[in-house]
Amino acid sequence: MTKSEPIIAVLGGTGQEGPGLAMRWAKAGYAVIIGSRQAEKAQRVAAELNEKLGLDTIMGLQNADAASAADISVLTVVATAHQAALESLVEALRGKILVDATARIDFRDPQPPAPPAAAEIAQEILGPETHVVAAYQNVPAHTLKQNLGSSIDTDVLVCADHLEAAEQVIQLTQAAGMRAFYAGGLKNAITIEGLTAILISMNKYYRSKTASIGITGI
Ligand SMILES: NC(=O)c1ccc[n+]([C@@H]2O[C@H](COP(=O)([O-])OP(=O)(O)OC[C@H]3O[C@@H](n4cnc5c(N)ncnc54)[C@H](OP(=O)(O)O)[C@@H]3O)[C@@H](O)[C@H]2O)c1
User: Fold this and answer.
1) Which residue's CA is minimally distant from atom 48 of ligand 1?
2) Cβ(39) to ligand 1 under 6 A?
3) What pLDDT digit, counting tens, does each position of 153-186 carry?
4) Rounded to the nearest whole angstrom, what is the distance from the C-alpha of residue 217 to the centroid of ligand 1?
5) Residues 122-157: b if buried by 16+ CB within 10 A, e if exposed
6) CATH superfamily label, 8-206
7) How many angstroms separate the alpha carbon of residue 216 from the centre of ligand 1?
């Protein structure tokens, strides 16, 4: 790792979506911190992920400590805890980039959520000094954890009002083995969340776990 590479925290990184992202970045040479409400749980999960990868570069910390220590944080707490988690992280995230992966979809009855997008809510809570970027809503946890050394056959739509922040997240996403495209401002992120409802519906119909999206024409 070079000194210019950001430290990445995956907040709520102890669940389904976070560990796959964390392992992909650790494998690409980034310093990664797993965040949790409980430091012990974060450390346990970090140790498990390190063991899987044969590395020792993933750390575990309580969410606010992880966000403070990182340059870029990725929020992967359960969708129902989105607002409360962010309210407890305002100071730790100030002046940094927060990548919001939240898709507020009920798996039993998948339907597009009403605006505003979760990422817009995050921006409102965190204030203008923090740059919120929406990404990974359409990337299945199952896919992220497979074939860690390889690219993933999926494309990631990245929404942000701050282009430089979006470009940094596009680079990080590429480092994790996915193609990524800028897809407009944070207001557009509601459509990305809605796409997740479509993908879950398709998974149910086609008995899959890994429906995702691909962009053509660019
Ligand atoms: N699963 C997927 O395939 C997928 C795909 C795309 C996007 N997403 C999005 O990624 C996010 C995480 O999904 P997931 O499936 O990984 O969720 P999850 O496994 O159900 O939960 C993730 C983590 O949330 C934390 N958490 C639970 N209750 C909390 C609370 N009250 N306050 C703060 N943190 C709490 C837990 O961490 P601690 O107990 O360690 O604090 C848990 O490990 C969601 O917004 C989801 O929409 C998921």
Assistant:
1) 17
2) no
3) 999 999 999 999 999 999 999 999 999 999 999 9
4) 33
5) bbebbeeebbbbbbbbbbbbebbbeebeeebebbbb
6) NAD(P)-binding Rossmann-like Domain (3.40.50.720)
7) 30
